[in-house]
Amino acid sequence: MGLRVLAAMSGGVDSATAAARAVDAGHEVTGVHLALSSNPQSYRTGARGCCTIEDARDARRAADVIGIPFYVWDMAERFARDVVDDFVTEYAAGRTPNPCLRCNEKIKFEAVLDRALALGFDAVCTGHYARIADDGALRRAVDPGKDQSYVLAVLNKDQIAHAMFPLGDTPKTLVREEAHSRGLLVADKPDSHDVCFIADGDTRGFLARKLGSEPGAIVDADGTVLGSHEGAYGYTIGQRKGLHLDRPAPDGRPRYVLSIEPVSNTVTVGPADALGVREITAIRSVWTGCEPPTAPIECAVQLRAHGEVHDCVAAMEGDSLRIDLRSPARGVAPGQAAVLYAGDTVLGSATISAARAAV
């Protein structure tokens, strides 16, 4: 017997194909597009597949082709508070947030799922590339280049139990071919990239408009002033370009952002080999593939979307998660997610609060 399924339709090829597959599986499917901006024209324009007026129209046309009811839900206020404001606050605090992860957590699988369950739906279907195992564990997609388990790892067990990811077992190229065969006009629509609520892609400019100019110093590890900046929020750990330093390094090698101190408004830079991190502390852990470990576990950790995977030992220390890497990782920034895996299965995730250099 089929389920009552709410299909979140962004206006892109993935969510449209996922909705069509849910219909093929015998479910009673209703499409919904999330209106995430009170002024959609202020968001990114063009055929990108996320939150513009064109996207809403594309989603509606896809629903018509599939033959399912379609609605638009206004999530602008919730999105502004839980994703956009959070993004700005995190950068102001010297951290590097992932807005797609926050959107999955707070919008698609909290606000939308809560409303869907209240309306009598059994599950929410999306076009994410991930799989759900028979035991309810979240697993990587078969297409490693499109795998989105990292940005879904913040979901809890109950949310995963009410989720559907019909595309997790299919490479993206075949999804586009399938969309063509179904007559979906979004079959060739480009994938969305970057941050959807920053229309021109200029994150530093967006933050400057929100936070204003806050001049400060760029220094090396011993405190020598090398240059200045207009806001520490405009930098991320591991950044190389855009430093505009007045004094080159004595050895001529490039410098990278090593740390960001929002209280003193200082950005510290140094050589690439100073970026190596061996020990990570993370907070707000969520465990879906196992129970919270009572002893250290051998596993692997991914520290950014589509980033490298590192072997590690993870252990709970009070309310915090400690991760000891077998080999150093670079560009590890507070605010990012650390997602633990056993093979292709997500064990849990947590938000990085501190990282210590390799010694």
Automatic annotation (TrEMBL):
<keyword id="KW-1015">Disulfide bond</keyword>
<dbReference type="GO" id="GO:0103016">
    <property type="term" value="F:tRNA-uridine 2-sulfurtransferase activity"/>
</dbReference>
<dbReference type="Pfam" id="PF20258">
    <property type="entry name" value="tRNA_Me_trans_C"/>
</dbReference>
<keyword id="KW-0067">ATP-binding</keyword>
<dbReference type="InterPro" id="IPR046885">
    <property type="entry name" value="MnmA-like_C"/>
</dbReference>
<dbReference type="InterPro" id="IPR004506">
    <property type="entry name" value="MnmA-like"/>
</dbReference>
<dbReference type="GO" id="GO:0002143">
    <property type="term" value="P:tRNA wobble position uridine thiolation"/>
</dbReference>
<comment type="similarity">
    <text>Belongs to the MnmA/TRMU family.</text>
</comment>
<keyword id="KW-0547">Nucleotide-binding</keyword>
<feature type="site" description="Interaction with tRNA">
    <location>
        <position position="336"/>
    </location>
</feature>
<feature type="active site" description="Cysteine persulfide intermediate">
    <location>
        <position position="196"/>
    </location>
</feature>
<feature type="domain" description="tRNA-specific 2-thiouridylase MnmA-like central">
    <location>
        <begin position="205"/>
        <end position="270"/>
    </location>
</feature>
<protein>
    <recommendedName>
        <fullName>tRNA-specific 2-thiouridylase MnmA</fullName>
        <ecNumber>2.8.1.13</ecNumber>
    </recommendedName>
</protein>
<keyword id="KW-0808">Transferase</keyword>
<dbReference type="InterPro" id="IPR046884">
    <property type="entry name" value="MnmA-like_central"/>
</dbReference>
<keyword id="KW-0694">RNA-binding</keyword>
<keyword id="KW-0963">Cytoplasm</keyword>
<feature type="binding site">
    <location>
        <begin position="8"/>
        <end position="15"/>
    </location>
    <ligand>
        <name>ATP</name>
    </ligand>
</feature>
<dbReference type="GO" id="GO:0005524">
    <property type="term" value="F:ATP binding"/>
</dbReference>
<dbReference type="GO" id="GO:0000049">
    <property type="term" value="F:tRNA binding"/>
</dbReference>
<feature type="region of interest" description="Interaction with tRNA">
    <location>
        <begin position="146"/>
        <end position="148"/>
    </location>
</feature>
<feature type="site" description="Interaction with tRNA">
    <location>
        <position position="128"/>
    </location>
</feature>
<feature type="active site" description="Nucleophile">
    <location>
        <position position="103"/>
    </location>
</feature>
<keyword id="KW-0819">tRNA processing</keyword>
<feature type="domain" description="tRNA-specific 2-thiouridylase MnmA-like C-terminal">
    <location>
        <begin position="278"/>
        <end position="352"/>
    </location>
</feature>
<dbReference type="InterPro" id="IPR014729">
    <property type="entry name" value="Rossmann-like_a/b/a_fold"/>
</dbReference>
<dbReference type="InterPro" id="IPR023382">
    <property type="entry name" value="MnmA-like_central_sf"/>
</dbReference>
<feature type="binding site">
    <location>
        <position position="34"/>
    </location>
    <ligand>
        <name>ATP</name>
    </ligand>
</feature>
<feature type="binding site">
    <location>
        <position position="127"/>
    </location>
    <ligand>
        <name>ATP</name>
    </ligand>
</feature>
<dbReference type="GO" id="GO:0005737">
    <property type="term" value="C:cytoplasm"/>
</dbReference>
<dbReference type="Pfam" id="PF03054">
    <property type="entry name" value="tRNA_Me_trans"/>
</dbReference>
<comment type="function">
    <text>Catalyzes the 2-thiolation of uridine at the wobble position (U34) of tRNA, leading to the formation of s(2)U34.</text>
</comment>
<keyword id="KW-0820">tRNA-binding</keyword>
<dbReference type="Pfam" id="PF20259">
    <property type="entry name" value="tRNA_Me_trans_M"/>
</dbReference>
